[in-house]
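Example 3.2
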Amino acid sequence: MHTRKVTKEGRVNIPVELMRLFDIKEEDSVTVTHDLKGIRILKQADQHRCAITGELSDKLYKVGEAYISKEGLEILEKGRRIKS
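Structure, written as tokens:
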């Protein structure tokens, strides 16, 4: 557990250990939401980087919350065929 103080502006620092764990870097965008249990901070998916290959591309497909390239979709399809 990490304890942080909230500034008068409402800012809270994310512990560096969690930034590393969730691959959050300086200048990355996050979404702040809430539910009845508390506040959630979620890293926004990079809309130009394939979630499977990690490659940058302007032609990505949104699958759920992820952005996947044609090559990434082919990798997923191959994995699905192997399990069948």
